[in-house]
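Q: Hi! Curious about what Cytochrome-c peroxidase looks like structurally. Here's the sequence.
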Amino acid sequence: MTKQKLFFIASMVLLFVPLAQADLSPTAASLGEKLFFDANLSDPPGQSCASCHLPGAGFADPDRELPVSRGVHPDRFGDRNTPTAAYALYSPAFHFDENQGLYVGGQFWDGRAATLEEQAKGPFLNPVEMANADSAAVVEKVRRASYAKEFDRLFGKGSLKVVKQAYDHIATAIAAFERSELFHPFTSKYDYYLAGKAELTQQEKRGLELFAAEDKGNCAACHTSQVGENGQPPLFPDFTYDNLGVLRNDENPFYTQPARFTSKGAEVIDIGLAKTTGRDVDRGKFKVSTLRNIALTPPYMHNGKLKTLREVVVFYSTRDIRSDWGKPEVAENVNTKELGNLGLANDEIDAIVAFMQTLTDGYQLDTSFVKR
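A: Let's find out. The predicted structure is below.
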């Protein structure tokens, strides 16, 4: 099914479950919902935030045929796999943690946006995404939108008059929508298991054990699986950055598009976090992603190099002992302490994958289930 068809279906579903009756009592989230799904805000029209962050695809790109997303111009592509927007609200503002000696939080794979609000401003102006010339062009389109009057009700009269202020309001509304329950429902099988409302299979339980075991999968070292102090279910990232030794993805069409959109063309090397921090010690590091809804968001890794969850676990287990994997795109700072030679057997790999598949939201409870 094409991205356009999936987008249409998801949009129709959302029409029947609105966040609020915005015309009667607008909220920042309900206004943000309109902005998020408005395909008229690109240049040319045709791409919205939801085009690459579709609810039915785990708030990631529904097009699994490419490792990266296609922009509103069909001959332009991004250089990275679209990260999910689900649960992104829990990422702290980008900062350096003195205790850990690491950068933590932020948005995008490289942390270049400190907050959801800053992240929301980026795609509108990116020439390989929504391709608007500047923020004034975006604001002018919003001024002509059917929901324009809602800005004055929420932010005061003349809220769209000054471009900088208006662009801030647009980002504020989108971020408010991304903080709504739709993006963090905690309705996976694992959530219900923690609440005593569902039971994991033997394979899923074994996968959970292997996931957490330091001498086995050790996945929880970065994808924290502990319940929060306030009882909040685990989010499954620690919000840090890591170089996993991922190979360059030569299937990425980004490398073969017009040179003005690739800076160095096919020779470009993605240095990740170091592009944001300017530190050599951060070369090749990318943000640890959440595992929630991970089964819905292939391909995987920052460049879409790995196509299935099983391939990811096999890579983690055998990266340093199988020569056919090849060399990492960035050889410095590769994490060799927590992955690369895990010694997982095939059935253990399958069990870890089975557990990760329990993290998909929308699980249908068995109403006859009785906790033993």
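A: A fun detail: The first strand starts at residue 95 and ends at 97.
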